[in-house]
Specification:
alpha+beta; eight-stranded antiparallel beta barrel; about 20% helix; two-stranded antiparallel sheet
């Protein structure tokens, strides 16, 4: 039953090409807050609205996609080895379309993205599952992980070990896939 739940989550994540983790990336020492992230950012037809919580050092992100579909995520900004990463996790207010049984079967996971910020651009890149798989094949002890029925990797290690894994991955060309840019929208504040 547990492997079926993980399989369903991974099937959904495979559609967007992510490597899920059961644990967060941040620790108290590596968690940072940057007020310049707060606001609306745009990519093509998507609007990303970050609402900051400086006390919790987190952001509530609402991504509005085509046809007014929304994703609500809790985001933490993590700084390790001079690099910044986003840790995405479903927000407590997030709604999953589907029946009750589907909702019971989905396990929330963390997704990690690199983040670089210039004055009006956020450049993000998602971990490439194929490159992560190659690195783990070469160095299986680098980070604890599990493979589910379809061979998809699920990271299961501590934040410190996950951080070391991402830093090692940054040495591999293409480990984080093709970057995409979000441009700061005209309004200064994100809509809740």
């Amino acid at each position: 039953m547990a492997s079926q739940k993980i399989f369903l989550v991974l099937f959904i994540l495979c559609l967007v090409g992510c490597v899920p983790s059961l644990h967060q990336l941040y620790t108290e020492k590596t968690l940072v807050y940057d007020p310049a992230i707060v606001g609306n950012w745009q990519q093509d037809d998507e609007l990303w609205g970050f609402v900051g919580d400086p006390n919790d050092r987190s952001y509530h992100l609402t991504i509005t996609e085509k046809e007014d579909k929304t994703s609500k995520l809790l985001v933490h900004l993590v700084e390790v080895g001079g690099r910044r990463f986003f840790d995405f996790y479903p927000d407590k207010d997030a709604e999953l379309e589907g029946g009750t049984w589907l909702k019971f079967s989905v396990i929330p996971v963390h997704l990690f993205l690199t983040v670089d910020k210039t004055e009006q651009v956020l450049t993000l890149a998602v971990m490439d599952p194929d490159e992560a798989d190659k690195l783990l094949a070469q160095k299986p002890g680098l980070v604890k992980h599990e493979r589910v029925e379809d061979g998809q990797v699920v990271l299961t290690d501590t934040p410190e070990r996950l951080q070391a894994f991402l830093l090692e991955g940054l040495k591999v060309e293409g480990f984080f896939g093709k970057p995409f840019e979000l441009t700061q929208a005209k309004s200064a504040e994100a809509e809740p």
